[in-house]
Amino acid sequence: MRAFLPRTVALGLLLCLTGHAQALVIYSGVLDAPGPVLDIDIDGDGGVDFAAGWMQRAVGSNGYFSSVYGPRYSVNMAYLAERRSPSSSYPAAYAALLPGAQIGPPGAPDLMWTGLSFDGMFWATRNSSLEPTVYSGAWSDVSRRFLGFRLDIGGLAHYGWMRFSTGGDGRVLLHDYAYAGTPGAVIGAGVVASPASLSLLALGLSLLLRASRRLRGARVARGVE
Question: Which residues of the chain fall short of a pLDDT of 50?
């Protein structure tokens, strides 16, 4: 019984470290949820935080219409968008971030936080019923790009990302999402565990391996092996 104690202790430490890693970055796991309509409870409190879909902006008698795709306004959510002039009347375009982009305060100089109801990811326009619908914007026809978000949880800002792919025909697929469990902490786009967590996990694995070797050496010395 005593011979297995070092391994048991090391394994228990590893499990504790694994739990700590999960607490630092909250990850959804693979979702691959098809859009365009998406209703996502990001923080697991039972309420919808991210509600996205097509929103019509204009319509004409000759078949003209203009629509925008993106999240609807939410008082507890904001998103990283391409920076525009404060006096501009144009809607903001949410940034399609590359892997590793830093998400948090204050953000990159060319980006800003926004969440107004007329902002969006990409647009669909048709000039008449005789013409095809044209999709445009940074999020039109992209593969595995990231939408940076800021989520208010209990009055504190948590930063995170959502990974999407879209088609040139307006198709939307939400792959997964994650956010920092520590309020105000910066998170990299695509990161599912913090560097500190990975270091702790490596320490746990090292302790487990060391304990296992000591146990094997003790058993060999006693002639068990």
Answer: 1-23, 197-202
Cα 166 to Cα 143: distance, rounded to the nearest angstrom: 6
Residue 146 token pair: 């990231």
Residue 22: the pLDDT is 40
Burial of 77 (0-12, 13-18, 19+ CB in 10 A): middle
Phi, psi of 169 (to 5 degrees): -110, 15
Same domain as 203, residue 111: no
Do 10 and 62 lie in one domain? The reply is: no
Do 113 and 84 lie in one domain? The reply is: yes
Do 186 and 200 belong to one domain?
A: no
**What pLDDT score does 217 carry?**
57
Domain count across the chain: 2
Domain that holds residue 207: 1-27+193-225
Q: Which two tokens stand for residue 60?
A: 């004409």
> What is the pLDDT at residue 2?
38
Q: Two tokens at 26?
A: 């909250």
pTM > 0.85: no
